[in-house]
Design goal:
The protein is an alpha/beta fold. The protein has a single domain, classed as ComB-like (putative 2-phosphosulfolactate phosphatase, Alpha-Beta Complex). Helix content is 38%, strand content 21%. The protein is built from ten helices and eleven strands. The strands form two sheets. A six-stranded mixed beta sheet has the order 5-4-6-3-11-10, with helices on both faces. Strands 7-2-8-1-9 form a five-stranded parallel beta sheet, with helices on both faces. A hairpin with a 3-residue loop joins strand 10 and strand 11. Helix 5 crosses helix 6 and helix 9 crosses helix 10. The radius of gyration is 17 Å and the shape is globular. The protein starts with a strand and ends in a 6-residue tail after the last strand.
Length: 247
């Protein structure tokens, strides 16, 4: 196994990922929200690139069967049922329903790598579960950890989560790391005992705190509290994949 990290969107092309397992990371907050929604009974999540696409897909369903969720610039979209705060995705809102979901960065990254061998979504919240899925199902495949970034640029929170996974894949499975994967692993090593502080001090973290989402930043910094593996099917539909128990 070789592990590479795309530290910003587009560093690794979709073509390069065709035979690899891709893990999309958008800690603040898309993939964290996906994990929470699935853990709280959401049937599936349809990732869309635009508000218009989300509304168009929703028009094909009965309103009782879905919720519209997402954000632009960190704020809920006018007319949508939910924003992009994990705290909103409680069972009473999402259990048994489809979530049609659009975000500034995360859902676009998921769709961009639709031709990969397999695609998962990771955050700090489900890092252990995703690691186990990679170890047990894809130990013979190359892995690309895709940081969704912020407005097509590097962001600290996604690189830290990628570093956590890269380090475990190296140390526990003997994976070889690219330069960017080594850099992410080293970055995580510096901050592993202060993840919340690192997220709060990051550009997007401080922006969200300024919007009143400080509790989201704290929640999204928690490590491996949710045993959920979101897997992408048919290029855009995210469902909960089976999680094997610890041996």
């Amino acid at each position: 196994m070789r592990v590479d990290v795309s530290l910003a969107p587009g560093e690794i092309s979709a073509g390069e990922a065709a035979q690899a397992v891709v893990v999309v990371i958008d800690v603040l907050r898309a993939t964290s929200t996906v994990v929470v929604a699935l853990d709280n009974g959401c049937e599936e999540i349809i990732a869309t690139e635009s508000i218009e696409e989300a509304i168009n897909i929703a028009s094909g369903y009965t309103k009782a069967d879905y919720v519209l969720g997402g954000e632009r610039r960190g704020l809920a979209v006018d007319g949508f049922d939910l924003g992009n705060s994990p705290a909103e995705y409680v069972p009473s809102k999402v259990a048994g329903k489809k979530l049609i979901f659009t975000t500034t960065n995360g859902t676009r990254a998921i769709k961009a790598y639709g031709n990969a061998y397999a695609i998962y979504a990771a955050s700090f919240l489900n890092a252990d579960a995703v690691f186990r899925a990679l170890a047990r199902n894809h130990a013979d495949r190359d892995v690309i950890l895709v940081c969704a970034g912020q407005d097509s640029r590097f962001c600290m929170e996604d690189a830290l989560c990628a570093g956590l996974l890269a380090r475990r894949l190296r140390d526990e499975l003997g994976a070889s790391l690219s330069d960017s994967a080594n850099a992410a692993a080293d970055l995580f090593g510096i901050h592993e005992n202060s993840i919340h502080g690192a997220l709060a001090a990051s550009s997007h973290g401080s922006y969200l705190i300024g919007l009143g989402y400080g509790q989201d930043v704290e929640f999204c910094s928690r490590r491996s509290e949710i045993d959920v593996v979101p897997k992408v099917y048919d290029r855009r539909v995210i469902r909960r994949a089976p999680v094997e128990p610890e041996e």
